[in-house]
DNA sequence: ATTCATTCTTGACAAGTGTCAAGACCAATT
DNA sequence: AATTGGTCTTGACACTTGTCAAGAATGAAT
C-alpha cells in the first residue's frame, strides 16, 4: 500500500511546487527547524504545522504517525551532516592545515547550527528510553564516527604517524568535547569557542604517535 | 510562606513515618525510579504517584509544580552520586590499584544503575532547551568533573606523574566514554563492559606524563 | 472528648495531545 | 464541461496532561 501510494503520488504534483517526495522533505525540514527550537518532547504536530505552510492534518498524509516523521527528519539531517568535513580532509595538504581546518569547521558548526545539534543530542538521549529510535540513532552515530575517523587517519597520514586509539574511542572524545562546548555555547558562557579550539588542537596530535621510520 | 510551611510541617509528622522532609525525599526517590524508567518527557505526575504510596494530588502539597519536583530529584540524586569514587581514591595505595578500582567502579555503576544515568543524560540534554534546568545541571556537571579530577590527580600522584590536560577536558573524555557505553549497554550490545574497561584502563595512564625527577 | 493544624484523597477543570474521517480544493484527463 | 483522483483543510474524537479546590482522614494538643 505504501509503495503504490508513493509511486502514484510522485507521478504528479498538483498543489504548491515540487513532487511528493520533495514536499515530504520540505515538511521534514520545517519540522526540523521547530524541533531544533523546542526539542523533541515539547514539539507537537501542531507546532510543526504552524511553522510550516501546511495545516496540522497534513502530517498524516505524508507520514503514518509522529514517530515516522521524526525518524525521517533525523535521517534527512544525517545525510546533510555526515560529510561536513570531507572537503577539509580532501583539500588539506599539511597536518597543520588539516588541524586548523578541522577546528575551524567544528567552531563554525557549533556556532551556526546549535539548534540542530542539541536536537541530535536530545534524540540520542531519547533513544535510551525509546527502542524505536535506537537503530537509526545507532546508524547516525556510526556515520559520525566514520567521519571523525577519516579526519584522524588523514591527519596521521599527513603527520607521518599512526592513530594511537581506535575509531570508537576517538569519536567519543571529540563528541564529548563538542557536546560540552555546545551546552556552554547555548548558555552563553564565555570562552566556549576558544576552549573547543584549544581542545581539538591539542587532542588530535595527541591521538597520533610518530611512526617508527627505521622499521619496514 | 514556604519557610513558615517548612518550619511548621517539619515539627510534627502525622501520617506514615518520618518528617516532612523525609517524606519529600521518599516521594522524590519514588519519582526518580519512575523517571529512570520512562524518561523525563514521558513521565507524568500520575505515573510518579502510581508508582508511589501516594495519590497524584499529593505532589502539589510537597512541591510547587512539576519542575520543582524534577529539580529536587536531580539535586537529591546529585548528592548520592557525587562521591561514588571517593572510597576508591582514598583506599588505593598504588597507581594500578586505583586504575582497576576506578574501572571496576565505573563498570559497576554502568551495569547496576543504568536507568539513573540515562535520566541524567536526558536531563542534561533537556537543559539545552529549558533554561530552568541549566543552573542545576551545570552544578552537577561540575561536581562530576571534580569527582573525576580527584581520580586523575590521585592517579598522577601515585604514578609520580602529572596530568597532561585540564580538569574539564578529562571529564568530557571519561563522560563521553561512559555515555557511549551506556547506550550500548541499554541496547544489549555485546562487549560493552570489556570495551569501557579497556578504554578507561588505557586512557587514565595516557592522560598522565611522568614527572621530570631531575628538576626541583 | 473536642479542637485543630497538618496531611492526603478525590474529583474536577481547562488546555493540549495524536489521530482520523469527511469533505473541499484543484489540476489534469476525458 | 464533466469527471477523476491526488492533495490539503477542517473539525472532531478520545485521551492525557498539570493544576487546584474542597474536603476527608489523621493524630497531637487541650
Topology record:
Two copies of one chain form a homodimer.
Chain A: H1 2-11, H2 20-38, H3 45-50, H4 59-62, H5 66-81, H6 86-91, H7 95-112, H8 114-126, H9 131-158, E1 161-163, H10 167-186, H11 192-206, E2 208-210
Antiparallel strand pairs in A: 1-2
The structure holds a DNA duplex (30 and 30 nucleotides).
What does this structure look like?
The structure is a homodimer of 216-residue chains. With 216 residues, chain A is an all-alpha fold. Chain A folds into 2 domains: 19-73, Orthogonal Bundle (Arc Repressor Mutant, subunit A); 82-208, Tetracycline Repressor, domain 2. In chain A, 72% of the residues lie in helices and 3% in strands. Chain A has helices at 2-11, 20-38, 45-50, 59-62, 66-81, 86-91, 95-112, 114-126, 131-158, 167-186, 192-206, and strands at 161-163, 208-210. A two-stranded antiparallel ribbon of chain A has the order 1-2. In chain A, α2 crosses α5 (66-81), α5 packs parallel to α9 (131-158) and α7 runs antiparallel to α11 (192-206). The model of chain A is unreliable at 1-12 (pLDDT under 50). Chain A binds chain B through residues 38-42, 118, 121-122, 124-130, 134, 137-138, 141, 164-165, 168-169, 172-173, 175-177, 179-180, 182-183, 186-187, 195, 199, 202-203, 206, and chain B through 38-42, 118, 121-122, 124-130, 134, 137-138, 141, 164-165, 168-169, 172-173, 175-177, 179-180, 182-183, 186-187, 195, 199, 202-203, 206. Chain A binds a DNA duplex (30 and 30 nucleotides) through residues 8-9, 11-16, 20, 23, 44-46, 54-61, 65-66.
Amino acid at each position: 500500500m505504501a509503495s503504490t501510494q508513493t509511486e502514484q503520488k510522485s507521478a504528479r504534483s498538483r498543489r504548491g511546487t515540487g513532487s511528493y517526495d520533495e514536499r515530504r522533505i520540505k515538511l521534514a525540514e520545517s519540522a526540523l527547524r521547530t524541533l531544533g527550537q523546542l526539542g523533541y518532547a515539547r514539539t507537537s504536530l501542531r507546532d510543526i504545522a504552524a511553522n510550516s505552510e501546511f495545516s496540522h492534518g497534513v502530517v498524516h498524509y505524508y507520514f503514518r504517525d509522529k514517530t515516522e516523521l521524526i525518524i525521517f527528519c533525523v535521517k534527512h539531517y544525517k545525510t546533510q551532516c555526515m560529510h561536513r568535513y570531507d572537503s577539509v580532509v580532501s583539500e588539506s595538504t599539511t597536518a597543520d592545515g588539516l588541524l586548523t581546518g578541522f577546528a575551524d569547521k567544528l567552531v563554525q558548526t557549533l556556532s551556526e547550527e546549535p539548534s540542530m545539534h542539541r536536537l541530535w543530542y536530545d534524540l540520542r538521549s531519547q533513544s535510551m528510553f525509546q527502542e524505536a529510535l535506537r537503530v537509526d540513532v545507532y546508524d547516525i552515530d556510526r556515520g559520525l564516527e566514520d567521519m571523525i575517523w577519516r579526519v584522524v587517519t588523514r591527519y596521521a597520514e599527513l603527520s607521518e604517524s599512526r592513530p594511537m586509539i581506535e575509531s570508537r574511542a576517538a569519536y567519543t572524545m571529540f563528541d564529548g568535547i563538542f557536546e560540552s562546548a555546545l551546552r556552554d555555547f547555548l548558555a552563553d558562557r564565555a570562552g566556549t569557542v576558544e576552549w573547543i579550539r584549544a581542545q581539538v588542537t591539542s587532542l588530535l596530535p595527541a591521538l597520533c604517535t610518530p611512526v617508527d621510520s627505521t622499521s619496514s
